[in-house]
């Protein structure tokens, strides 16, 4: 009987505490910002085979690459590259990006693997060299797909060669540094 009286005595306090805790947690849930799906940071790209062919043909007069997508905030760059004539080319290695080639036209010689001969870092993580020691040589042509993982030496030579280049960066590209604004000078006294 004493236990029943004790429970009844504290019942209003326990009920009040449960009500306060429930109200407090409900209020916190309402105040939390509502998550929504992200919005695209760039427009999508759809190119028919004909428009891709026209685009590639436009690049043919010279050695040229044209980006389809890429830039600030992106981890992927997609470009069409055309080599009118590339009898020699520097070997390269990327510390923080992978390359994917899809050959559109022509043939080229591609050396993969081995080690760069006398590498020079031209910018952080981007290495160039006159050649590759111990790499494997491949002839690549229309329809071939090549994946060059980061850290792999590679060198390509060819003539009349076009490809889609997909570059995948380890981290999104940052915005280019903005030049410092010119400082205002105080007027000089005559």
Describe the fold and architecture.
With 190 residues, the protein is an alpha+beta fold. It has a domain at 49-169: Jelly Rolls. 22% of the residues lie in helices and 41% in strands. The chain is built from two helices and eleven strands, in the order ααβββββββββββ. Strands 1, 2, 4, 9, 10 and 11 form a six-stranded antiparallel beta sheet that branches. The chain starts with a helix and ends in a 21-residue tail after the last strand. The mean pLDDT is 78.
Under CATH, the homologous superfamily of the domain at 49-169 reads: Jelly Rolls
SSE topology string: HHEEEEEEEEEEE
Number of strands: 11
CATH structural class of the domain at 49-169: Mainly Beta
Distance between the termini: 104 Å
| CATH architecture level-2 label of the domain at 49-169 | Sandwich
- Average of pLDDT: 78
């Amino acid at each position: 009987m004493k236990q029943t009286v004790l429970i009844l005595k504290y019942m209003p306090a326990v009920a009040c505490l449960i009500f306060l805790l429930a109200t407090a947690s409900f209020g916190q849930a309402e105040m939390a910002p509502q998550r929504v799906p992200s919005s695209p940071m760039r427009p999508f790209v759809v190119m028919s085979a004909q428009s891709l062919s026209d685009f590639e043909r436009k690049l043919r007069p010279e050695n040229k690459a044209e980006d389809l997508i890429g830039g600030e905030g992106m981890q992927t760059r997609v470009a069409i590259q055309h080599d009118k004539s590339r009898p020699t080319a520097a070997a390269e290695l990327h510390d923080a990006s992978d390359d994917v080639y899809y050959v559109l036209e022509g043939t080229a010689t591609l050396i993969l693997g081995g080690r760069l001969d006398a590498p020079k870092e031209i910018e952080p993580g981007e290495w160039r060299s006159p050649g590759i020691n111990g790499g494997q040589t491949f002839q690549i042509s229309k329809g071939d797909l090549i994946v060059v993982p980061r850290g792999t030496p590679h060198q390509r030579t060819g003539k009349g060669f076009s490809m889609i280049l997909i570059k995948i960066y380890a981290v999104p590209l940052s915005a280019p540094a903005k030049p410092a604004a010119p400082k205002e000078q105080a007027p000089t006294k005559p």
